[in-house]
Description:
This protein is an all-alpha fold. It has helices at 2-24, 31-45, 49-64, 77-85, 97-119, 123-137, 144-159, 163-184, 187-205, 214-230, 234-253, 257-278, 281-295, 304-325, 328-347, 351-374, 380-404. The chain contains 17 helices and no strands. The longest helix has 25 residues, at 380-404. 38% of the residues are buried. Mean pLDDT is 87; it is low at 1-5.
Amino acid sequence: MSETVSNATERQKKAFGLLLRRLSENAGLTNSQNALRDQIYHMASTGQFGDAFEINHRLLLEVGNADAEGAASDEAPAHFLSRFFKRPDVADPNLPAVFQSRERQLSTLALDRAVLLGMSGQPGEANDLLDKLMEARGEDPGNHMAEEIFEAALGLADLSASTSRRHQILHARMSFFFDMALQDGDDEKLRTALQAGELLHCDLAALDDVADHPEAVRTCADMMLQFGRSHERTGMLKSASIMLSAAAQSLRKSGQIKQSYELVVESLHAEIALAGLMGDASELAVLSKRLRDIVDLPDTMLTTETRGQTRYFLGTCLARQADIDGRIVTLRKAFGYFEAAAKQFAEIGLEAKELKSLRDLALAKVTAAELLALNRDNSDTDLVLAQRYNAEALQLQQELSARLG
């Protein structure tokens, strides 16, 4: 217990020092303004927060109203910041450089104010200001401001010894940079997201290394898988598969068989995405055989959810194989696995996965109907079958819509 308290106290001391250092970093202000900001640093270090707030207020008004003749010199900080947050998007590359520079200075001063609020024992107000700043200025060119906001938020969470707030921020940081990476196809942002995910799971699991931690590996591999698919990065898909496979082997060596197969199946999912992207029907056939071997394993080796997931991935693999080779018989096999997966997920209350399986089943039936209809050599019986598949797909889609309300 005393060790935990000691660690928490040590983290608070470190956070206070890091937050102070943030107040001393270059803000791109004039020499006289930087001199005033230096005073804020010294006042905060000695607990003179009232005076520090006054100087911060003065700097905000001075920088913000630089070109506004007759602007109020006594505008309340809350009113000024509200006005500041409604100003144009600084990420717009067409804005004049001088305007972007000023907005950057104001963002830094607003972040200073959030730090002062947290250091002076007002975490709620600090977090509220940080959230508003992130919403208004988080997507500045290069996302440097976003990183600074996250760092300040983490420091304030540590200062207030709020573990839940720290985890919330780490998760938000991971999600923010992953969304940006996915949107822009930016490898650097993806690396930042992966590092944030690793740090989050280190915190959650209280470990220094989570290379073999199932949830940490799954989180990172899932980001790599989504990124690889969206931007057709075969290397990223292969890396996700290797990462999952290595973690699975480590779990198997330690006797965690069921957990190991969870990751094996997810590794094969990444291989399916890779083979699908490469248009390799023969590799997909090999993968479907490996999945069939796994789905038949005894209950001592697979959880019910993993068995359902294996069936779903089998359906996905066969459907993708049929997309490439155009064989209806392959697609019909996919129907059965999607149906079995949906049933298995329903039995254990995993509705989201059940609905996803049914949605993909409907899509597979539509695809089968199209293949049959487009083949000029098909008989009347095949055309009737195509109509049946279309009708079944429509019925499934209507049932899904009704359930989703």
